[in-house]
Amino acid sequence: MRLSGNASAHARFMRRAIELGRISGLVKKTGGPFGAVVVKNGRIVGEGSNRVLSTRDPSAHGEIVAIREACRRLRTHDLSGCILYTSAECCGMCYSASFWARIRRIYYAATHADALRYGDFDDTPLEKQLRRRSIHRQPRCVPLLRNEAVLVWKKFHNLPDRAWY
After folding, report:
1. CB neighbours (10 Å) of residue 160?
2. Which element (helix H / strand E) includes 86?
3. Which active-site residues does the annotation give?
4. Which residues, at least 6 apart from 19, have a Cβ–Cβ distance to it below 8 Å?
């Protein structure tokens, strides 16, 4: 794939993501060797490294940490116009967070196969669960009190000044 824009800037941002992963996985041992940066208009607005072990938070992946920091610094949930550089291909959670944050492009270094081969990080079980119907997933997804929840959603839908995402 051809890189759009300045190739040396892309390489610089990716090297920073890889370095953050190196520090988290090999030096500080806060989690796996995953790092990420969010860039807007040629400057880093968010950095993150894997902190799953140090924070005891399974959602503290490098990409999530970087997205949270970028949102905080930019004071918005909308990262339109931003680019994510990550030391490895996003898992389903990190890709979803990027999607909902409206990040326009993701550059990654290592592949899912590399993460499995060299780190025993396997996203296959999650991907299999997501393809199943919700009632057959593990953990089991069980519908409960839908009508009560829908009443709240209807009221939200009709608010003239509701929050827009």
Report:
1. 4
2. strand 82-88
3. 63
4. 35
Running DSSP on this structure, what letter comes out for residue 69? H
Would the pTM count as exceeding 0.85? yes
Name every residue whose Cβ is closer than 8 Å to that of residue 36 and which is 6 or more positions away in sequence.
Answer: 17, 20, 47, 48, 49, 62, 63, 65, 66, 67, 84, 85, 86, 87, 94
Per-residue pLDDT of 120-162, as tens digits, reads 888 888 888 888 888 788 888 777 999 999 999 899 889 998 8
- Per DSSP, helices labelled H in the chain are 7-22, 52-55, 62-74, 92-100, 112-119, 124-131, 146-158
> Measured on CA atoms in the order 76, 82, 86, 88, is the torsion positive or negative?
positive
Say if residue 155 is exposed, middle or buried (CB neighbours under 10 Å; 0-12, 13-18, 19+): exposed
